[in-house]
Amino acid sequence: MKKLSISILLLGAVFASAQEKEKEQQIEDVIIVGNRNAKRTKVETPVPVDVINIEKIQKSSPQITVQDLLNYVIPSFNSVRQSASDGTEHIDPVTLRGMGPDQVLVLVNGKRRHTTSLVNYQNTVGNGSVGTDLSTIPVIAIDRIEVLRDGAAAQYGSDAIAGVINIILKKDIGGSASLNYGITGRNDGETYQAGVNYGASLGKKGSYINLSLQLNQRGKTIRTQNHNLDIFGSNFAYDFAADPAAARAADDAIIKERGLTRDDFNFQIGDAQIKQAQLFFNSEYSFNDHLKFYSFGGFSIKEGEGFGFRRLPSETSNVVAELYPNGFQPVLGSKVYDLSYAIGLKYNKNDWFFDLSNTFGNNIFNYNVSNTNNASLGIKSPTSFYAGAHSFLQNTINLDVSKNIKNFNVAFGGEFRFEQYEIKAGDEASYARYDIYGNLVTASTPSGDIIGAGGSQSFIGFSPKNALSKSRNSTAVYADVSYDLDKKLNIDLAGRFENYSDFGSTLNGKLAVRYEFVKNYAIRAAVGTGFRAPSLQQQYFNNSYADISTTGDGIVTKGIFTNYSKAAEVLGFDKLKQETSVNGSVGFTLKPARGLFITLDGYWIGVKDRIVITSNITDSRLQDPNIVGAGNEVESARFFTNAVDTETKGVDLVVSYDWKVGGGNLNINLAGNYTETKITDFHFPANLQTPQNEFFGPDQVNIIETLSPKTKATLGLNYGMGKFNFLVRNTYFGKVTRDGYPFGGVQEFTPKVVTDVSVGYNFTKNINLTAGANNVFDVFPDLQIYENSYFGVFKYAPVQMGTLGNYFFGRLNFTF
């Protein structure tokens, strides 16, 4: 905190001398997102838009992925790596302004990008949502990122409730390359990244093709402790044993007898290992002065390896002792394929602009589980399984038309989108339960003939009953008009009508106004309605999964059922419907000196019928094979439902200043965000007979209201002088609260400040070396209270800045 205070004092001194020192004209970025007026800059927009120069920031920052870079640049953006959370370990959920990952729309070159096929359901940030995997886009392929911090459903359609992230790909002529190596202060989490980008002219003026290849490898980290485990007894921890010392001594005797050490029983909990290869392209060809063809897209393959909860020898229903006499810790492997491409034609004549495009995206997530067993098969069980896959396909056709008429810009168009979601079954042994004779368990199988739990431990495979293929389409028309009067008055009015084949129609509008009442001083405001259609994943995802019992005394099987299942019907759940929202914002933009830019924006977002996943509902009917199907009986179940209304309010502050000082250039960026989300109402299904704590309990309320920092701020100082460049950046993560319900406690995590530093040196105008550190002072979240730590295993919770600790890096950058 002392270093942060010094930096703020320095910032105040800079402001005092700003008008005298600054001599250069600020470069004003022309923006694409937020309106369809191609002549606007970020200073003139009626709503807040951040323009992030990725190449410049990535050159000096320790972070190497899109989501990590944005996490340390935009305070209202949050992304934290998760541990022991199935697929969510391999695709980081991202949020904007405290909303869910599925309430942020991602565009590439202004075109809608597909989401991942993964549903977050392991009680992480964004629980019950489906987001976009930003890590599939290589950093070296990106020119800049525009972040629209305002609701934009009336302009772009579903998912744009919190805002829009628009990723602009490079179209440079020439080449660049980057080599990166990093490692944590604990000698793990080793990262390698190599990328190359090359652009070439296609002969005609303005025609180009730009190619990017990037390879990444991130090693696993271990951030756990296991000193309290009662390894061979009937208790999970010595603290719960009648005689803790005797229980530990008994374990030690068995360990010594087997020639082992306690290290053989370590939990490996931390960041998953990730390997990834990405190939992207961006191209445009001019047939003549009026007609252009463009295409862009890419392919990414990601392989991940994370860890589940350790199965102890005492868990006889989960562990085959002949295979794993000391128990085991399952390994969840992922193989994620992501493909995207867009093609289009642009025609421009007499100030009329036409853009016809087709954008395709597909995400396939495969699961493999190893170092595990199907306990019901006993000694015959395999130790590795293919557990199935899910995929999501999206194809979008757009026609956009616009014309600039004096002070007016008129735009209109239409969109047709097709979506398909599939779940594919895994190996039979990954999901099935067998009797002692090797036969599949049925409703009539005697309980005495079943010796263990079915399916692969840690991640139970998708069965043929889970498998499905569902699709839908939507059709939309929109129109918007913008009015600009000598850069003094800007007015935007937008409307959009959209019809979905599976739930109906919606009509939304937006009005945004900016008025410059004194030169370089302006007020801006916006109000609009929005919506988010339930994703196909939320409508149809279903599976069985292993988790801690609702009583906290072991690993059991739980289930997620669709809203169309017989279980949902019997328990009285309603079918999913769309979320609706209202957004309001008001703010100020100030340019009191050349190079000094300040924005302050307050906002309010009300969401009705927000789609969430319930808590674990226990009901005797969930053990009835006639309802859930033989072999699918579960201790408890969860369902997607329009359970709550929420209200989000907050404020964003951004201050940027460029100052020539000491023979060099100093860039100062101060940005802060305060966001508060509250649940204002609950919607209980009329026929559901269950307590509120099981329908939507304190743990789920906690995820929405207090699991992400309400306050986040960053102060970055970037100084370039001669061949040297220096970066010092402090990021403040406000307090968060974690509720370990139903078997844990409520814990408040105190605020933390993370410091990044780097030094860069230009050997030549084409070669740069940068070295530095993220979290140089090795700051961690507070230690977890014991009852929230899975009996002492999870030393830290993945909140605030996560559990990586300090990370040191070196990077070589080349241009050619």
TrEMBL record:
Residue stretches making up the TonB-dependent receptor-like beta-barrel domain: 333-776
Keyword set includes Membrane: yes
Record's signal peptide: 1-18
Domain TonB-dependent receptor plug: 42-164
Cellular localization per UniProt: Cell outer membrane
Keyword field: Cell outer membrane, Membrane, Signal, TonB box, Transmembrane, Transmembrane beta strand, Transport
Membrane topology type: Multi-pass membrane protein
Pfam family, one: Plug
Transmembrane feature ranges: none
Gene Ontology CC terms: cell outer membrane
InterPro entries on file: Beta-barrel_TonB (IPR000531), Beta-barrel_TonB_sf (IPR036942), Plug_dom (IPR012910), Plug_dom_sf (IPR037066), TonB-dep_rcpt-like (IPR039426)
Domain of life: Bacteria
Family: Belongs to the TonB-dependent receptor family.
PANTHER family linked: PTHR47234, SECRETIN_TONB SHORT N-TERMINAL DOMAIN-CONTAINING PROTEIN
Name this polypeptide is given: Iron complex outermembrane recepter protein
The organism of origin for this protein: Chryseobacterium wanjuense
Taxonomic lineage: Bacteria, Pseudomonadati, Bacteroidota, Flavobacteriia, Flavobacteriales
